[in-house]
Design brief:
The structure holds 2 protein chains of 2 kinds.
Chain A: H1 3-15, E1 18-26, H2 28-43, H3 49-69, E2 85-94, E3 97-107, H4 111-123, H5 126-138, H6 151-158, E4 164-169, E5 175-183
Antiparallel strand pairs in A: 1-2, 2-3, 3-5, 4-5
Helix pairs in contact in A: 2-3, 3-6, 5-6
Chain B: E1 4-6, E2 14-18, E3 23-30, H1 35-51, E4 57-67, H2 69-87, E5 91-99, H3 103-115, E6 120-126
Parallel strand pairs in B: 3-4, 4-5, 5-6
Antiparallel strand pairs in B: 1-2, 2-3
Helix pairs in contact in B: 1-2
Classes of the chains: A alpha+beta, B alpha/beta.
């Protein structure tokens, strides 16, 4: 790669008001270091405390999703702790709203289940999302979840617009790239 | 009963459980990689403490500026334990601190009060 390619990359990031971009392996240490950097950056802008907390919340849920569920782990898949998995994340600003975009590979056969979880969130009102959240909070954890099964609901609750997502098949591999975007 | 003290880290709150004084406090942020691994031992310690408590005046101060989704369920489990303790003859006050503008944290406190009515939960806005 020539330096010009890096310049083009930088210019595009600047044009798109990217606060930061990370691509690679995600671990808890990476998440909390990025979280600290994000927070420093937010301290120097005029966002309210609530917006900052919501942005931080969406950032943590999405980044920890990569740590827990990306289909490209460096660590053994049965490790519950100290996981390291591949993904990419971008925090940007557009029309005075922050947004977070995240991408990670998932097993191709996991797509329908994920779609069934995410699609209803797009048409629910904030009150409906909060109601669903309350119900989930009180029920038993779901199989396959490493947390409370509340991650996507938390992202949808903290976002100011319906969440967006996409699946892009990766030919020649058993995975599909899963994209998720939330605007604060 | 051993008191528990854990200093805050970037992803875990300060834990100050002074069982001998019936004063417990959680302060900071909570987004550990594995919430069960962090809260499990704290739940065990609280259970052991409560097993021997009758008629105690217990105060829990919770000042969490942020907690992630996997921490929420474990926080609920913690309050469930203290609700049981309140039902079996202890008086439990929870001071639930929240940023005055932050409805999400306030609403979570209200959820706890609704689910665990034996707790005397006081929401306190931080100005």
């Amino acid at each position: 790669m020539g330096l010009t390619a890096f310049h083009r990359f930088q210019d595009l990031a600047r044009e798109e008001n990217v606060v930061f971009y990370y691509s690679g392996y995600f671990s808890q240490a990476v998440v909390s270091a990025m979280g600290d950097a994000l927070r420093q950056r937010l301290n120097s802008c005029d966002a309210t405390n609530v917006t900052r907390r919501k942005l931080f919340s969406v950032f943590v849920e999405m980044a920890q999703n990569v740590v827990h569920y990306s289909a490209d782990p460096l660590t053994a898949s049965d490790d519950a702790d100290h996981e390291l998995r591949r993904g990419a994340m971008w925090v940007g600003e557009c029309d005075k709203h922050f947004y977070v975009v995240c991408a990670n590979p998932i097993a191709r056969e996991a797509q329908p289940k994920l779609l069934a979880k995410l699609e209803p969130l797009r048409s629910m009102t904030l009150d409906e999302i909060k109601q669903r959240y309350k119900e989930k909070l009180r029920c038993e954890g779901e199989a396959g979840s490493k947390g409370a099964g509340l991650g996507f609901l938390t992202v949808a609750r903290d976002a100011s617009e319906p969440i967006e997502f996409d699946f892009v098949d990766e030919p020649d591999s058993a995975t599909t790239l899963f994209y998720l975007k939330a605007t604060l | 009963m051993q008191n528990v003290y854990l200093a805050a880290t970037s992803a875990t709150p300060e834990v100050d459980f002074r069982f001998d004084a019936h004063r417990l406090s959680l302060k900071g942020e909570s987004y550990p990689e594995n919430a069960q691994a962090f809260y499990g031992p704290l739940l065990d310690a609280a259970s052991a403490y409560l097993a021997g408590s009758r008629g105690a005046d217990i105060r829990i101060d919770v000042q969490l500026a942020y907690f992630n989704s996997s921490s929420t369920k474990l926080l609920m489990s913690l309050f469930e334990l203290f609700n049981q303790a309140a039902l079996s003859g202890n008086h439990v006050v929870v001071n639930w601190f929240h940023d005055e503008e932050d409805d999400t944290i306030l609403e979570f406190g209200e959820e706890i009060a609704e689910d665990y009515p034996a707790l005397e939960l006081l929401t306190q806005a931080l100005v």
